[in-house]
Amino acid sequence: QVQLVESGGGLVQAGDSLRLSCAASGRASSMYYMGWFRQAPGQEREFVAAIRWSGSTYYLNSLKGRFTISRDNAKNTVYLQMNSLKPEDTAVYYCAAKTAIYDYSDYRKYDYWGQGTQVTVSS
Asked: 65: burial class by Cβ within 10 Å (0-12, 13-18, 19+)?
């Protein structure tokens, strides 16, 4: 079992930055990918970024250059740095973990999820 707890969400203005954290416990070190997803009201859950156990990173193309995923293995924590936030970034952001080596962008293939943290960007 893996437990994931997100933090760092909030209400910000367009152009601001936020850093989300995802603290992992349990068998987190055995996860092949850690990912961030987001879901806006009435929308399907959307891939944001993922980081492989090796440190390789993957992003939704439209977010490259604004969002950065990273991890601190000593703290068992994954981060999502979000810069130049836009109102369309408003969503609940979820941290997730998966053991399989494929489909890092498919939310249906993730095994463990956090409870989510709300990010609201005002214009």
From this structure: exposed
CA distance 64 to 78: 17
Stretch 100-122: mean pLDDT, rounded? 94
Largest CA distance in the chain: 41
Residue 52: exposed, middle, or buried by beta-carbon count in 10 A (0-12, 13-18, 19+)? middle
Give residue-wise pLDDT tens across range 50-94: 999 889 999 999 999 999 999 998 899 999 999 999 999 999 999
CB 38 within 8 A of CB 60: no
